[in-house]
Amino acid sequence: MPKDSLERFLAALDPGHREAVGAKPREEQEQLAAAWERELEADDELDTLDELSPQAAEAEAARRVLDREAG
Question: What residue spans carry the region label Disordered (predicted)?
Fold first, then answer.
């Protein structure tokens, strides 16, 4: 996985979650970033949001990934 995806995923997180994810092992961070990329690609609702605000779409996808991980 390109480092760029992980950096983009971390940037999409709010500061509290960024710190928590940053404390996880690198492999787990990369798995979360891969799930985030899949979420961005698969959800049509995020495609629409991405047209209006790419940053908001990335943040929403990151929130969904973390919600799934916690749940």
Answer: 48-71
